Amino acid sequence: MREPYITVRAVQPLVAALDARGCSGRDLLLASGIDPALLDDVDGTLPQRAVMRFWQCAEEHTRDNDIGLHVAEAAPLDSLEVHCYALTASANLRDAFERACRYQRLIHETTRLELVEVAGQTVLQHALPDGQAVPRQPAEFLAALWVRIGRLMAGDAWSPRWVRFAHAAPSSLDEHERVFGCRPRFLAGATAIGIDAQSLDRPNQQANPVLVRMLDRYAQALIERMPVRDQLSARVRGWLSAQLAGAEASAAGAARAMHVSVRSLHRILREEGTSYRDLLDHLRHDRATALLSNPRYSVAEVAFLLGFAELSSFYRAFKRWTGQTPVDFRRATRSNDPAAR
Question: How does DSSP assign 268-286, residue by residue?
Answer without folding.
Answer: HHHHTT--HHHHHHHHHHH
